[in-house]
Amino acid sequence: MHTSQRGLSLIKSFEGLRLQAYQDSVGIWTIGYGTTRGVKPGMSITKEQAERMLLNDVQRFEPEVQRLIKAPLSQNQWDALMSFIYNLGAANLESSTLRRLLNARDYSAAADQFPRWNKAGGKVLAGLVRRRAAERDLFLEAA
Fold first, then answer.
1. 141 is catalytic
2. Mean pLDDT throughout 54-72?
3. Fewer Cβ neighbours under 10 Å: the N or C end of the chain?
4. Would you list the domain boundaries of the chain?
């Protein structure tokens, strides 16, 4: 399974587009639509480069979702999980109760785990509250 345009749009809407490198809320150098790999202070990119970086990051995370999730997924569930893993990384999904419940095919209980992932640097962030709510809504939406 691959990330749909709707999934990419969800990621873009929460990551935003920044063409100059910046430090995120926990001090990680970031650019484009939330890309962190290889980003250095003072770096700048074009919108086209940001799009390519996003697609490269998504292609890197798709095999991680396939590896970690054994339960059948709808396209909407896949896209919600891609937004989650794009933001939090594979290690957090791997160790999560969300993953355990999902692999047990308890989709409803798994969906209820999204809102728990609303902190960065130990603080609840309004943007993460909104993102997790949007991911949960998409996850629960009939395909």
1. no
2. 96
3. C
4. 5-140
